[in-house]
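@channel anyone free to eyeball this complex?
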Amino acid sequence: MEDKKIRVIVAKPGLDGHDRGAKVVARALRDAGMEVIYTGLRQTPEQIVATAIQEDADAIGLSILSGAHEHYFREVIRLLKERGADDIIVFGGGVIPDDDVPILKEMGVKAVFGPGTPTSEIIEWLQSAVQERRSRERV
Amino acid sequence: MFKEEELKKISETRLKYEEEVKKVTQKYPERKGTFSTCGGISVERLYTPENIKDLDYLEDLNFPGEYPYTRGVQPTMYRGRFWTMRQYAGYASAEESNERYKYLLQQGQTGLSVAFDLPTQIGYDSDHPMAQGEVGKVGVAIDSLEDMETLFDGIPLDKVSTSMTINAPASILLAMYIAVGEKQNVPIDKLSGTIQNDILKEYIARGTYIFPPKPSMRLITDIFEFCSKHVPKWNTISISGYHIREAGSTAVQEVAFTLADGIAYVEAAVKKGLDPNVFGRRLSFFFNSHNDFLEEIAKFRAARRLWAKIMKERFGVTHPDAQKLRFHTQTAGSTLTAQQPENNIIRVTIQALAAVLGGTQSLHTNSFDEALALPSEDSVRIALRTQQIIAYESGVTNTIDPLAGSYYLEWLTDEIERRAQEYISKIDEMGGMLVAIERGYVQQQIQDSAYAYQRAIEKGEQIVVGVNKFQIEEEGKSRKILRVDPSVAEKQIARLKALKERRDNVKVGDVLEEIRKAARDESQNLMPKILEAVKAYATLGEICNVLREEFGEYKESIIL
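replying in thread with the prediction:
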């Protein structure tokens, strides 16, 4: 089953309306052959986690530019754990100060992509992260 | 502008020049096969009188302050007074924002611009579950008149003009501002400022909508009507291309979609029976100033000329002030890089200069650290100094519209106007901007441009200095950045709770009921009811909840 397409949720949590980055990334992931579910704006962590489980997603990408990243990443990861779905890869991007990246990683966020990141970098990273996750599952 | 004979001579001489070019390029090819503006308009090697041979000075440019206002909306422009230097600011609590405003005024800023946090912009009080994690983050949290009183404490509202970036709940924040003015004994007709109040671009690009389009348009036209009568110096709307551009549009799309939004508002107000010669004078605009220096200058001039024509020819407006496109500009946030952030100071300078050469009425210059976090006090000061250096040192303010007559600039001004007009005609054919938005046409156009721009960067066709060229190692640099104290939310919620215990809750119930009744009756203007409600300390969330119950909520159509 090596060829099963990567399924990824791209989500905009909370009230932030800056969706250019999320949409560009979603489109780039789709063009790279992944199945992308873009949630649209104003998603609660509950909605995002429910969508991810329902869609059998490999990964969730959160885009936050409002400064509320700590809150939303924490909530999404907490809910994934609560539902026993914390094998889903969580990554994200937006306006996130460098100093906050270690805090997010500590929580379990696998990667944070700041402004100016080429989409190719995100694609490559996600492909290998999902591959690793799947090979772990098979063991 | 040029004599037939002269043009002929120029044409002939051009052929010689082109032969010369051919020789040179055979030996030394040009850097690229084709050149184009940031927005994708093809650019020739050289522009000459031939490119603008049909330009009619009086008809197409005319004098500053004269139709079609291509050269500026005032007869003296910056020789009379500089543009208003207006930095968008606000964070955390009303007290902290109040301090930042006083600091900015002390530093020579000439107008205020209030940033509200997202819960305020979307009509939630700070204690609402959806507000969690967002209180005080991207702006100041305002729940009731009490917060607004603190926000403007010690700032005389008859001495400053205040711009408020507020859209869906614009009437509520305007009402609060009027109420604060009353408490300071400033008569309502002496208040001056702007509310953004532009819901269409929220659906298209910015995302802080609450209600569906129809009742939203009613709230907007209610404000037009109320302010025409009572707050004559208030700009009732700031029709915004800024966010459309930030979402990834081209310069042409920015002009086209912004003016198409403007057309929709004028049509709605006319339908309500309002006179465009009156409310038209208080319409204002808000544009982006992006990287392509000359394209941006041409864009501002083209927008001014096109809007004047729309108001005159389409709506039969005769009052000159209602034909004039007055605008605020902000430099392009999306061009700021997190890499080598100091480079952003130079980007902002070029963009700000374009806005000034394009004849802006007010300007916000971005801080260089905004791709990293909320701007710090130091970076905000540099941003303001950038404007002051342009104003006082660069010399560009000595004469009006100094680039007029440039073959390239005039050609490009025409070209942008022509292409924007094509979009507007297409939107007209669809049935107007509301339909175009509903169908996702506008959003799709913008997204396609955004994606194309990103592809161009990744292919190296578009260079971003410090990002895909001239990179350096910058690991582990800890910067001094502004952080919002996490206790802000708790304090704000406690203050809200105390207010709700202290105020006359029976009265609050009554005024909210009045709003409900007015919401159901389209012949009533909602503004006076909202003003009564804020004076009784009904909260923003309470008022919006009543309107949500009556109007429903907008659901985004997801386009990818």
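from a first look: The mean pLDDT of chain A is 95.
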